[in-house]
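Researcher: Predict the fold of 3-hydroxyisobutyrate dehydrogenase.
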Amino acid sequence: MSSDIDIRVTGRAGRITFTRPQALNALNYDMCLAIDAAMRQWESDDDIALVVIDAEGDRAFCAGGDVAALYRSGTMGNYRDGRDFWRDEYRLNAYIAEYPKPVVSLMQGFTMGGGVGIGCHGGHRVVCETSQIAMPEAGIGLIPDVGGTYLLSRAPGRLGEYLGLTAARMGPGDTILAGFADHYIPRDRWADLIELLEASGDVAQVAAHAEPAPAAPLAEARDEIDRLFAAETLDEVRATLEAADSELATSALKAVRRNSPLSMACTLEMLRRLRAEAATIRQALELEYRFTWRSMEDGDFLEGVRAQLIDKDRNPQWKHADGILPDAAVRHMLAPLGEDGLTFEGEERVMRIGFIGLGNMGAPMAANLATPGHEVIGFDMAPVEIDGVQMAATAAEAATGADVVITMLPNGQILRDVAAQVIPAMKPGACFADCSTVDVDSARAVAAEAEAAGLLAVDAPVSGGVGGAQAGTLTFMAGGSAPAFAVVKPLFDIMGQKAVHCGGPGAGQAAKICNNMILGVTMIATCEAFALADKLGLDREKMFDVVSTSSGYSWTMNAYCPAPGVGPTSPADNDYKPGFAAELMLKDLRLSQQAAGSADADTPMGQLAEALYATFVEEEDGRGMDFSAMLPRFEKRHRS
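Model: Structure tokens for 3-hydroxyisobutyrate dehydrogenase follow.
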């Protein structure tokens, strides 16, 4: 991800920079998810006043979506990857358009397709002398998507039809005329503008730096474009262009003959509907998704990408190339999708969720999923009752018909055993999401079994303890494919406050055990330091005041202090009743050392922490105590 996009906070600005200029900053699925996650975090951060989106390189802000990957999966009969990507990309487009804070986009060079979806829906869209914006999707068998039909339907006169059917490129003046940009600022002034935005958080700086837009050639051609593209059907537009005798008509006709007839006919119909309804961007994106959802199986997308980007023979064999395009074909591509239709935040469909493992963590997690109306079917070996959760007699019964199956289990062997029962019962395309903390090898083995059965798979151990499970403030560390993560992320958002996609299968478990190895080691060091301070006669409160604001700062000191009466309230203030039990820390440390052995990693501090917690739990009185109860242990001990 780091080589594709740079997301950070500088001053009062959330900063998003595309960093793959060698690929014209093409947009992929992981980049979409990263942008969405960052902007959602910044939305509630009062220190961030605005968002600035820009790109490295001179040739392109973002020349479109990375459709080659979708082509590869589509040609193998996997249409889900494309559908998942378009769904979450479109949700991001709507989110940018509706974002409650100012969004500034600076678009040099080419901005096309997916780049339009990122750069052209915010409220402060900047172009420069090199800007070239276009919607060329009809050339690869798509329609102007990512909210492109929304922008085109609002363009003056029939510019929308002209730009959507011909893929004509707009220079800076035309982009402002057509409503794809707001301000013209020469490129050599952008660095100063960004610095001011970062320092001040004042979006008025954008307008203050703007200069009069260059001439807009489309303004002079408006009357002719309106006449040539006034017809309602593709056949009529073609006939008008063929009958006209002008340079513009000849050029437009050449483009119309080159592009997908089905895509162009659907584009015309979509613009007509959106314009008549004065539609919102959500309505436009929902209509676009009907087309793209069907585009691989029933449209020209795969053939278009093959001809333009894969084989590059520029000779696509379009459907309906004979000129006979029945109205039924357009109606089919734009028909509602039923339960597969695009939804947005606040209107997601109800999911059927199987939840297996309803102990101290799983029970409140399942209850939180049931609260907003999801259908949750639970199973546990022990008899339990949870408000809103229907109980099943077996794990397989809980998984039958589920969109997502979530497991919360004690160890890797039990996970493997449950997976063997559950995976055969799951419907094709469903997602298996394991939220247990288990060994990496088990996580990867179960993911492989799920994927072999035609399922999506995510390993997503959690951090936050029982309190976080009850409050819905867990952190999820997820491994698996981007499409799988996208399916379960809305559920993680209900159960937690943060979900991080860490990489492929097993990456979530790897992140969890590395995190908890740090946690175990630092808790021991924190407890040792307090015990030493006591013996040196240093007041605990004074020690906390010094360490919590200096180089000894750590989560175990500042947020989970093991000394009672010092710092924020923690289990130490409740007789060390467990928030995170010492035996669970021992389990995680053992997992870390098992992984270290498999990876041939030298982790001496992790080994020592494991040994100390093993002694504490198995030979002393640590079982059933919080892992911070190491402090009273060290208080009683003397130097050996």
